[in-house]
Amino acid sequence: MLGPVILAASRSDKMRRLISAAPVTKPVVDRFIPGETVDQVVPIIKDLTGKGLEVTMDVVGEDITTPEQSYAARDAYLELIGRLEELGLGTKAEMSIKLSMFGQALEGGHELALANVRPVVEAAAAIGTTVTLDAEDHTTLDSMFAIHEELRKDFPQTGCVIQAYLFRTEADARRLAGSGSRVRLVKGAYKEPAEVAYQQKAETDKAYVRILKILMEGEGYPMIGSHDPRLISIAQELARTAGRKLDEYEFQMLYGIRSDEHLRLAAEGHRMRVYTAYGTDWYGYFMRRLAEKPANLVFFLRSMITRG
């Protein structure tokens, strides 16, 4: 029941100011967001890839109100790609991009976001890696999928994200499960109305399994975005049933959550990718991490009480 409340708080300027100003916040945020600059996260990337893990990098920031801010977001990703090239880490690190950060919600935003994301996808391909388009709230998805389809004409390895709690997602999964596709399946972390999304965790979990089965039986490359032990076990069984080898799908989990599980899966031979966010505009990302999992909220509140 707390999830919707936290998601509402993620859009509140008053709560943003209150939480951002609290002295206990930064040490807790650091658990999920290990830096604000490329220089700060490079050691994290080296550490994770040195342990046999892969990463997907997210420069946080969604509250874009001007085209100039969207250009700055594009340039931040281009800077990241340049550093990955210098370090020779292109094949171990991909990028995750929210199109809202690239101006999608502005006037003429669909065309602006496409124009901004294309050079990032081109630069990623040039160093041997790729980009995955993150899913946001349901009103943005038709635009995201259209941009994804357009990018795949020249860069077929471009991935996208689908969310199990949306009613539309089973149909989207069938459409996206073709040869060469890369699809990350997550439960979903936005506050959505009952007309478009399941409201109960049990229903979302059932949908997740149905959709994952579609992806595993398809011809594309499924990316399992979950920390749920039961869903991870189900994913392994679905992969075996579908006759998939260990390099024909991957697990993805967030930086700072179940780190021991990251290493366990990698040690078993699975591809394990750590979703690693960095940047100064961390508030919305952080609040969704609290909403997704009660243990994260308990961790935050306990830290506030202890440090207070």
Measure the end-to-end span.
Answer: 26 Å
Structural class, from secondary structure content?
Answer: alpha/beta
Shape: globular
Widest sheet: strand ordering: 1-2-3-4-5-6-7-8
- By DSSP, the count of extended strands is 8
Helical content stands at 40-55%
Q: Can you write the helix and strand succession as a string?
A: HHHHEHEHEHEHEHEHEHEHH
Q: Describe the biggest sheet? A: 8 strands, parallel, barrel
Radius of gyration: 18 Å
Could you tell me the strand content as a percent range?
A: 5-15%
Q: What's the rounded overall pLDDT mean?
A: 88
Your description of this structure?
The chain is of the alpha/beta class and 308 residues long. It has 13 helices and eight strands. It has helices spanning 2-9, 13-21, 25-32, 38-50, 67-87, 109-126, 141-152, 169-176, 201-217, 229-241, 259-267, 283-292, 294-307, and strands at 54-59, 93-97, 131-133, 159-163, 182-186, 221-225, 250-254, 271-278. The chain has an eight-stranded parallel barrel with strand order 1-2-3-4-5-6-7-8, surrounded by seven helices. Helix 10 (229-241) links the parallel strand 6 and strand 7. Helix 9 (201-217) packs parallel to helix 10. The protein is globular.
Gist?
With 308 residues, this protein is of the alpha/beta class.
Q: What's the arrangement of secondary structure elements?
A:
Layout: H1 2-9, H2 13-21, H3 25-32, H4 38-50, E1 54-59, H5 67-87, E2 93-97, H6 109-126, E3 131-133, H7 141-152, E4 159-163, H8 169-176, E5 182-186, H9 201-217, E6 221-225, H10 229-241, E7 250-254, H11 259-267, E8 271-278, H12 283-292, H13 294-307
Parallel strand pairs: 1-2, 1-8, 2-3, 3-4, 4-5, 5-6, 6-7, 7-8
